[in-house]
Amino acid sequence: MSSGVVRRAFIAASLSLAACAPKARSQAPIAIPPLKSFAPFPVGTCIQAAQLDDPAFAALVAAQVSQLTPEWELKMEYVLQKDGGYRFDAPDRIAAFCADHGLRFFGHTLVWYYEKPEFFQQRLGEAYRSAFRDAYAAYITAVVGRYKGRICAWDVVNEQITDDGADWRDSLWSQGLGRLEHMRFAYELAHAADPGAVLFLNDYNLESNPKKRGTFMGLAEALLKAGAPLMGLGTQTHVNADLAPGAITAAVKDLASLGLKVRISEMDVSLARVPGLANLRADLQRRQAALFAEAAEALAGLPAHQRFDFTFWGLEDSQSWLRRENAADSPLLFDDAGRPKPAAAAWERALRP
To answer: What are 54-65's pLDDT values in tens digits?
Structure first.
């Protein structure tokens, strides 16, 4: 997954998107059935509220998927204001779109190591421990409670394992509440605020870094042992087109080994991050299609009660965070005009009976 700097650049670019007029778009017919029509699990994508201003894109989303995840407008950096108040205009709009179109609404995310809001920094330290804990509890309770009965699940803790896979991340939250306790407490609070929501632990590079996957699984086991109501595991599956065949399958099988629900939570397959793109693009497109197909088969191969959803981190290439990193990238199933690519056809073929 990208560094925090890249993520911040993406968010800044995404904010500017809201001011743009809807783009012109080809109305080419879809060459495959809608993704959600043949998948043996819910199919999702991420979205920003401003993207719903484009009627053609909104129609594509409603036709293709059965679940939406706010790309960043349910993260603390959007919701929590400097004075401690909360902002819900964008996620409320996405929630309303889901209700109007019969789509599931997925919550992303409650606790992320990268967040360092001034409101909480002012309450950090032994003398303010009680105030920090109270504010943490109030935030999670308010956010989860607002969408009680409307959100199907939450990424409660996101990206908690270090990039080298060696340990759990240090963060403002671990400093204020303890390494394990801040996570255990978050699951407890979320469950109390909405007992019907499925609660996930989510991370990236679990396919390409077996060491990180092992540490991730160890954290899941530690949370369960501590009594946290952890119910599912998510692997983001942001991968490059040169990922070794079988790596996604191995990751999905490992995650399923605890008996919890499993989701592919943010999948895209980058071409531009592979060296030698100019000379290998056709080959990389074939490998991209194969990786999407492998992921579909891996999730479909789990017992039905463990297959929670398969979410793509965007539908059209033009909407991808990776496009803002490199304009040559094309990591998703649909091109800039909303037309399915070979990767979409491969994903569909992998799920045919």
So the answer is: 999 999 999 999
